[in-house]
Amino acid sequence: MLRSELVAKLATENPHLFHGDVERVVDTVLEEITKALEKGDRVELRGFGAFSVRSRGARQGRNPRTGEGVAVDAKHAPFFKAGKELRARLNGGVDPGE
Q1: pLDDT recorded at residue 98
Q2: CA 44 – CA 56 distance, rounded (Å)
Q3: Strand locations in the chain (E)
Q4: Which of 42, 58, 81, 92 is least buried, going by the fewest C-beta atoms within 10 A?
């Protein structure tokens, strides 16, 4: 689902809200999650999952065209771990982690 599809669906399900207001709410939620991750915080949405940042160390990569070694700098990458309820819903009501 695209961001625009999410906004349209929420606006349809909440006809008492203006489309522009729904769009601002979605933008605000996504922006706050982004800001928290920038600070290195963890964002948990109960039943859905948790967003966090993982550090990737510097390493020696390989250029696939030439096979030559290439230095890859350390970096941070976003990480999402699905919550228990989400995993269960995706697997027919059974949590595969149990």
Answers
A1: 66
A2: 22
A3: 43-45, 49-56, 59-62, 69-72, 75-82
A4: 92
Query: Quick one: residue 51, left, alpha or beta (phi over 0 = left, psi -120 to 50 = alpha)?
Result: beta
Alpha carbon 45 to its chain centroid, in Å, reads 11
> For 1-58, how does the pLDDT look when each residue is reduced to its tens digit (9 = 90+)?
999 999 999 999 999 999 999 999 999 999 999 999 999 999 999 999 999 999 999 9
How far from 52 is each of 17, 19, 56, CA to CA, in Å?
Answer: 31, 30, 13
DSSP character for 17?
S
